[in-house]
Design goal:
Length: 301
């Protein structure tokens, strides 16, 4: 069985895993990120890889290669992390540094959401002629599109769903970017403002909603309204065959799917409603970035 390492690099943590060519996660390890300095950050990536190798009793000689998902803009051909909001890696030659560190020739890098989307696309068993969308709601909001077996990248910035303007009640019924209005941190901020409770977190919001406390119903109602505005734009522009939700906000709260379906149906005309039966929440959850990065070593698209 062929194996590769997948790395999911984030501003809070780095996850590394041993991935089989069939997408099985055989071993997983984490290291805490250190975004204070580019070299310290790279050292933490190395630590995560070394730990997963130790835990699995494998060596680099047993591997086909390494795949790495990096936030922000990347130059895949040159192997460079070009720009990130939360890492100190402007123009950082991540592929060359990994190659030098581990002596592995095959290094594949891509945006972290694209890596996660690849794992979800494989898991969904989308047909070769279909349009597939992975939509992630976490610290930020973004999506990735795989059309007829290939990533749709546009001029390099396709899929930035968080930038879609939506009509936000919290902003006084003014236009606001979807990510600013309703990504994970925004949900907690909205609750703190509405309920005048400075210690509320996003996790608290969902727990209190599920406990049936009425004050939280309007918060979840407003947040899902915002998401659906962005999702309807995707529905109109792409008319996807399948859409999978990921990211910690929705992966940890799968009950949201029914609310989304109900609200999205109200926007859609009948010819668009086929999508309602093809919306799902990730079953790979927080491991999709690691799995996708490892799988891309075996299959580049």
């Amino acid at each position: 069985m062929k194996k590769a390492i997948g790395i999911d690099i984030g501003g809070t943590k780095i996850a590394a895993g041993i991935i089989s060519e069939t997408g099985e996660l055989l071993q997983r390890a984490e290291a805490k990120s250190d975004p204070s300095d580019k070299e310290k950050m790279f050292t933490r990536v190395v630590e995560a890889v070394q730990k997963v190798l130790r835990d699995s009793s494998l060596s680099v000689a047993d591997l086909e290669g390494i795949g790495a998902g990096v936030p922000g803009k990347v130059d895949r051909e040159q192997g460079i992390a070009v720009f990130q909001n939360n890492l100190p890696w402007a123009q950082f030659p991540i592929a060359a540094r990994l190659r030098e560190q581990f002596g592995i020739k095959r290094i594949t890098i891509d945006n972290d959401v694209y890596m996660a989307a690849f794992a979800e696309w494989k898991a969904a068993e989308a047909k070769p002629d279909e349009t597939f969308v992975y939509f992630t709601i976490s610290t930020g909001i973004s999506c990735s599109i795989i059309h007829q077996g290939q990533f749709f990248r546009g001029a390099g910035f396709a899929g930035e769903a968080g930038l879609i303007p939506i009509l936000s009640k919290a902003a006084g019924n003014m236009l606001e970017r979807l990510e600013k209005a309703s990504a994970g941190p925004a949900i907690g901020a909205l609750a703190r403002k509405k309920l005048q409770s400075p210690d509320l977190t996003t996790k608290d919001v969902f727990e209190q909603y599920l406990a049936g406390i009425p004050e939280y119903r309007s918060i979840i109602d407003e947040v899902t309204d915002n998401w659906v505005q962005g999702l309807y734009a995707i529905s109109c522009l792409l008319d996807p065959h399948k859409l999978v939700f990921g990211g910690s906000v929705i992966a940890n709260n799968p009950f949201l799917l029914d609310l989304i379906k109900e609200k999205l149906k109200a926007y859609q005309i009948p010819e668009q409603q086929h999508l309602l039966n093809n919306l799902s929440v990730s079953t790979i959850k927080q491991n999709n970035g690691v799995v996708g990065a490892g799988l891309r070593v075996f299959e580049e698209i």
